[in-house]
Write a structure and sequence with these properties.
- This protein is α+β, with helices and mostly antiparallel strands.
- It is built from 5 helices and 5 strands; from the N terminus they run αβαβαβααββ.
- A hairpin with a 2-residue loop joins β4 and β5.
- α1 packs across α3.
Length: 114
């Protein structure tokens, strides 16, 4: 678990930097307990990665994200969606929750503060 916002920002930034060297990322959204400001002792960092490079081979996508997560040494739990999937599933409860309560931390090449 990261202990403060600065550590959270550094961990996510490190992950996004590694990620953008491997895929063309449109957006990264932080959701869950860290986005709401209520992380517990064992909370992981929940993020959604949106890229047009995703949506073709789920196994390869999850292997890539898992490898990058291990390289950051922080408990990040990433999910992958293509931009088309993100737009088409925006009414699904899970995606709606991410859109309504999540925080966009990276979009079109720009990192935002957490």
């Amino acid at each position: 678990m990261v202990k403060n916002k600065a550590q959270l920002g550094e961990a996510v930034k490190k992950f996004v930097e590694k990620l953008t060297k491997n895929v063309e990322v449109k957006m990264v959204i932080l959701y869950g307990s860290y986005a709401s400001g209520n992380p517990g002792e064992y909370s992981d960092i929940d993020i959604v990665v949106i890229s047009d490079d995703f949506g073709n081979n789920r196994l390869e996508e999850m292997q890539l994200l898992s490898r990058l997560t291990l390289e950051t040494d922080v408990d990040i739990e990433p999910l992958a969606f293509s931009y088309k999937e993100y737009l088409n599933h925006s009414t699904a409860d899970f995606i709606h929750e991410i859109i309504s309560k999540g925080k966009i931390i990276y979009k079109d090449g720009e990192m935002n503060d957490i």
